[in-house]
Amino acid sequence: xxxxxxxxxxxxxxxxxxxxxxxxxxxxxxxxxxxxxxxxxxxxxxxxxxxxxxxxxxxxxxxxxxxxxxxxxxxxxxxxxxxxxxxxxxxxxxxxxxxxxxxxxxxxxxxxxxxxxxxxxxxxxxxxxxxxxxxxxxxxxxxxxxxxxxxxxxxxxxxxxxxxxxxxxxxxxxxxxxxxxxxxxxxxxxxxxxxxxxxxxxxxxxxxxxxxxxxxxxxxxxxxxxxxxxxxxxxxxxxxxxxxxxxxxxxxxxxxxxxxxxxxxxxxxxxxxxxxxxxxxxxxxxxxxxxxxxxxxxxxxxxxxxxxxxxxxxxxxxxxxxxxxxxxxxxxxxxxxxxxxxxxxxxxxxxxxxxxxxxxxxxxxxxxxxxxxxxxxxxxxxxxxxxxxxxxxxxxxxxxxxxxxxxxxxxxxxxxxxxxxxxxxxxxxxxxxxxxxxxxxxxxxxxxxxxxxxxxxxxxxxxxxxxxxxxxxxxxxxxx
Length: 480
What we know:
Blueprint: H1 3-33, E1 38-41, H2 43-49, E2 56-61, H3 65-72, E3 78-80, E4 88-93, E5 96-102, E6 104-107, E7 116-119, H4 123-128, E8 138-141, E9 145-147, H5 152-158, E10 160-161, H6 167-173, H7 176-188, E11 191-192, H8 194-203, H9 212-223, H10 228-238, H11 240-244, H12 264-277, H13 291-299, H14 304-307, E12 309-310, E13 316-317, H15 321-335, H16 340-352, H17 366-376, H18 380-389, H19 396-420, H20 431-438, H21 444-460, H22 465-478
Helix pairs in contact: 1-2, 6-8, 7-9, 7-10, 12-13, 12-18, 13-16, 13-18, 15-16, 17-19
């Protein structure tokens, strides 16, 4: 690495470390006074060197967790012990969130889903057990001595992920590190060393012993990163995706020279990229990475392999793949133990992603537009983005026509929204009105009447009160 590049990296790191120095140095002095050492470590050092250090700081120490608690409790604003079983004490001080972990090593046996934690006595022993060399650097405090026994700084400059020891040993200690390799590739836009990729392919099956929750959390971090395509492709190529998200590699449908269709796997990754481009900027309210939208973009076509049919005219069809895909999405996300509300939202977006394609050049009635808005509900903005992202054709004329058609639909929605408050579509008569007008008590008939009035509202738009009452009475008479 050129000397001037190294100096630039070091200067950036020093400026970042000086920013956190008052908190970090104060804490380090307290550990020293108690007879212990403290060092900034791992991702915090890596991010400082990259000039992207945030307010989450990781430390390592030779003090055992009980000793750490004695030191930080009188000093910190808040202390938590969620990770203490794994040697980690968390605390907050002056706006910084700190995690202090005792020198340790983690290893899995062949059947356990939980790592066996053993404490070490030296920082060198701790660093060799870290996942990657770029995370195996430390800065001893308060003297700010840089510790890099595995050339992590060189790998950081080369933007490459290697393991401190052999990748086989590293992934045997914690198989989740294979997922972390894909995640860091996506987050940092780094390449993964060939020997690491080889080990991932050979050891992918070991991931099965890791808890679903830990795997899901790594997958989320990958999908929410700046370059998720890079990490997802690595997961597919190494066989990790076959265990975590098998619907993704299944999109690589075999091509038939007589039955041509779009590459569904590449299309899905492109739709994800395009959905990310439509996300609101981070500095806007509600902006930044949107897990719901990104999952829907990635999974929107997973029903295609099960619904593919070769037609007599040489075409390939995927009839009702959106319905099948919604069910598959719900099943996979449930197995990964996603929150129910997120499962519901992503599945609904997958189910609705083709609805616009019946719009044509604007033939929908106002009733159809109202139903589109009603069915999307609070997901309407995400559905707009997903639908626009789903256009990956290279035919510029076709792409422009689709974009203009959707512009037209959004204008119609805005017009109706202004006239009719589409985001709160309700019948012109509520349940109390229905019971009073018909003289009935609460029960199934009230629900049926409410649904009938809602259908009229969707079909015809708002009605005057007397008109709505007459329509209700007419329906009631037909019920006998």
